[in-house]
């Protein structure tokens, strides 16, 4: 459970809480955890060599301090030569819970954003082959670029809309939110049966097909229709 000291001094100053800006507000969204869903678009599952049939969703996590705000640089990470972009809808929760019913799940959503699940594909591949955890492939520094959050009060709950990402102006990934195998309410409900969801949790909802490598100097620019845009320079 929570290990925060009540009113005592810390032995050193704690790092600041990771936050995201909110569209149309000067208030910040404080981030608790980052959950990511794997293989949530059929064509991406196929391109990664998997059966696109509707298996239960699976999740991994990134650390909240791996967030990078859209517009900031993405530092090319160490010990890889195959870093991939995965553009994803990001679901931002303002209410937590366990065993949340599908029909109640959207009440927990504060808003949506556009994220990049940056991946050291070579290290992820080794982990898969060896049956090891994915952290080295997925949870490295700056691996979670994200746009500002647009509140539900402005955007509603988008269920369709074009998703694309370009690298140096060349189209790489295209899809539509309506191609998601597991829909947002189902993801929240399923996750809440495995973890105690909390206000501030983010869910990266999976990527369409067309993932590919970037190199230093590449400009990544993505958009989810009706939600927002994201851009970052690989340095
Ligand atoms: Mn992903």
Question: What does this molecule look like?
Answer:
The longest helix has 10 residues, at 121-130. The protein contains five helices and 17 strands. The mean pLDDT is 94. The chain has one domain (19-233): Fumarylacetoacetate hydrolase, domain 2, CATH 3.90.850. The strands form five sheets. Strands 4-3-14-7-8-11 form a six-stranded mixed beta sheet. A four-stranded antiparallel beta sheet has the order 13-12-16-17, with no helix packed on it. It has a three-stranded antiparallel beta sheet with strand order 9-6-15. The chain is of the alpha+beta class and 235 residues long. It starts with 18 loop residues before the first strand and ends with a strand. It is globular and about 50 Å long. The protein has helices spanning 42-47, 121-130, 135-138, 152-155, 184-192, and strands at 19-21, 28-30, 34-37, 59-62, 67-69, 83-85, 87-93, 109-116, 119-120, 144-146, 150-151, 162-167, 170-176, 202-204, 212-214, 219-224, 228-233. Bound molecules: manganese (II) ion.
Classification by helices and strands: alpha+beta
The CATH superfamily title: Fumarylacetoacetase-like, C-terminal domain
Largest sheet: 6 strands, mixed
Uncertain spans, ≥5 residues at pLDDT below 50?
none
Sheet with the most strands: spatial strand order: 4-3-14-7-8-11
Bound molecules: manganese (II) ion
Overall outline: globular
